[in-house]
Amino acid sequence: MSEKSYRDAVRDALREELIRDERVLILGEEVGVWGGTYAVTRSLYDEFGGKRIIDTPIAEAAIIGAAVGAAMGGLRPVAELMTINFSLEAMDQIVNNAAKIHFMFGGQMKVPLVIRTPAGWGQLAATHSQSFEAWFAHLPGLIVAMPGTPYDAKGMLKTAIRSDNPVMFIEHARLYGVKGDVPDGEYTVPLGVPDIKRAGGDITIVTYSRMLHVALAAAEELSRDGIECEIVDLRTLRPLNMSKVYDSVVKTHRALVLEEDWTTCGMGAEIAARIGRDRFDFLDAPVERLGQIEVPVPYARNLEALMFPDEKLVVQRVREMLS
Amino acid sequence: MDSMISVIRPDGTADPEQDPGLPEEDLLLLYRKMALLRAFDEKAIALQRAGRIGFFVPSAGQEACSVGAGHALRDGDWIFPSYRDHGMALMRGCPLETLLGQIYGNAADPTRGRQMPSHWCDRSIRLVSVSSPVATQLPQAVGAAYAAKLRGEKVASIASFGDGGTSTGEFHAAMNFAGVFETPTVFFCENNQYAISVPVSRQTAASSLAVKAQAYGFRGIRVDGNDVLAVRKVVGDALARARDGKGPTLIEALTYRIGPHSTSDDPTIYRSAEEVAAWREKDPIRRFAAFLSGRGLMDDASIDAAAAEAKEAVRKAVEVVEAAPPVPFESLFEDVYAELPWHLAEARDALLAGKE
Question: Which of B55, B119, B131, B168 to mutate to test the interface with A (most CBs of A within 10 A)?
């Protein structure tokens, strides 16, 4: 094991797959010479050259469209969108093409494509602070991964690159510097399998990506008062595997879904509906959700600070649910 | 379309064929605004480095573009700038405090702390804020021009963007719409050679960006973007044609971003010191100063005085803006819709209750 940042873990996954499979290539804005806006692909251009680490013109629709074509054409492209906000420029290519080609063409064409892109915020304001994971999780044909730790990020990205399906691999700008243990040797983490990140018997917190760390910090605080949270990290949002969530709810009888996105029509809505339908008899209280305030994200620091659930709010909500 | 129009010749005199013939007071105004813009940029970068503002997009090296184009605009014209064109706002009379207030995102910001720095909006001069993703303002500029045409207003719209913007789908779509509907739109491309780290050679294989206009059925012109008189002339002519119902124009202004893309960038990774030094020699402010000196309108003392005056104006504006309070927290829920809806009033009250 070595301690690595989330950024380095993602880069290691890319590098190892570039070495392992010559069909893998990276394309996007600023990914080559500059090494990526968030420095994820730094040094890969020097090692693999401009034929495999490709700086593209600014045109997200063409980046994803070309990647879809290259994937059908026998390569395994990893396209980077500088931020998930720019996916809006490529939506038709993602929704109507990447996600559906295998189905529409009767299985004749595969699209082994990974779209890497960070969600996140930090005085990036209304157009650059969005999540959108629920939009992508809405789409049959797409796999949506949103890992929260360096270990998961590396292992899941390797699986994503080897998958024959299009994978929306959503990273997080505020996680890139977060460190964690990563095995030194080869390993992969499956897609579609949640992970219990903390065991506890009093309440289930269902979460993913950066909010995992908010949940862990809140759980630590609550534990001092004898309240034990069980934290289920979904890791993959589509396909949404509920088995670990259900096992946990059967044990705790209470669930809180913690997401960074707006809650209306979000992941929490889906999860609450499924728990309500499949484990209704085990619930002692309605499933609760916590997410961001339903306005566009402002720039002003004092207002932005109000936008997202923090550890304090999670602690408060859990106490309310248990009282 | 690959040749380039210049006015100020290497010896500092104006080419009489191209000289827009501006009155002396306008020439001096152009100079003062360019100096003010440079002082504004230097201060904003210093403020960012000192942690007093979060982010800034500088325009040093490109002052002739935004100030020259801004001077050619008239009341009623629509401005859809890129994030590097605060010079157009300054030239159109937008107060320094408004520009600085936006960067601070406090109560001095007319847009109420909603957008990242360098996203200015001022309805009084029909200045529409850029939305960040490049070139998204281009189709809007076409639409505003089309609306003006339908309403019988003799006004034009200008959309400015960088070389990187020409790679987008929006550039193609906007140019095509403008050509088809003959909208009074000036597409003003400031080719500053880099889209963040990516050189223009990675944006196009065409011999110029101006040549692209041909495919959309209208004029494309290349202008020396470090020559404020040339920019003033070419943009002025294009706007006049647009207002007269003669359709759109694409202008490619050749220039160079002397500084970083933004305060988050380090250009030494992708550009050589020699390249930057060569462009510094073509500094648009120094070049214009040489012209004005040759005309006997300025001398070393008045050049220094203009720089000092600009610096002082910026210092004063910073003082005013820094004294403004933060935006009130209730404002978070306002302007999401035209009126405050019940559900956001409830959310506001819940947050307020939670704070107490």
Answer: B168
Phi-psi region for residue A112, left (φ > 0), alpha (ψ -120 to 50) or beta?
A: beta
Is residue B48 within 8 angstroms of chain A, CB to CB? no
How many CB atoms are located within 10 Å of the residue A253 CB?
17
Q: Do both B319 and B337 map to the same domain?
A: no
Could you tell me the pTM of the whole model?
0.91
Q: What is the CATH number of domain A195-322?
A: 3.40.50.920
Residue B273 shares a structural domain with residue B337: no
Q: Assess whether pLDDT exceeds 60 at residue B356.
A: no
Active site residues of A: 60, 128
Are residues B264 and B338 part of one domain?
no
A128/B132 Cβ within 8 A: yes
Which residues of chain B have a CB within 8 Å of the CB of A54? Answer: none
Give tens-digit pLDDT for B117-151: 999 999 999 999 987 788 999 999 999 999 999 99
Q: Do domains A2-182 and A195-322 have the same CATH topology?
A: yes
- Chain B closest CA to A2's CA: distance in Å? 30
Q: What is d(CA A119, CA A129) in angstroms, rounded to the nearest whole number?
A: 7
pLDDT digit string, tens, across residues A214-227: 999 999 999 999 99
Dihedral sign for Cα atoms in the order B311, B317, B323, B324: negative
Please indicate, yes or no, whether residues B314 and B339 belong to a single structural domain of this protein: no
**Pair B135, B170 in one domain:** yes
Is residue B9 domain-shared with residue B43, that is, in the same domain?
yes
B116 and A124 in contact by Cβ < 8 A? yes
Residue that has been written with the tokens 């290519």 in this structure: A93
Closest-CA distance, A195 to chain B, in angstroms, reads: 33
B261 is catalytic: yes
B307 and B351 share one domain? no
Interface touch A58/B164, C-beta < 8 Å = yes
Mean pLDDT, rounded, for B310-317:
98
pLDDT in tens, B88-119: 999 999 999 999 999 999 999 999 999 999 99
The reply to whether B219 belongs to the active site is no
Second CATH level (architecture) for the domain A2-182: 3-Layer(aba) Sandwich (3.40)
Mutation target vs A (from B52, B56, B116, B344; most A CBs, 10 A cutoff): B116
Question: Would you kindly state where each structural domain of chain A is located, as residue ranges?
Answer: 2-182, 195-322
Q: In CATH, what number is assigned to the domain containing residue B32?
A: 3.40.50.970
The Cα of B12 is separated from the nearest Cα of chain A by a number of Å equal to 37
- The answer to whether residue B315 is catalytic is no
What is the predicted pLDDT for the residue at B1? 61
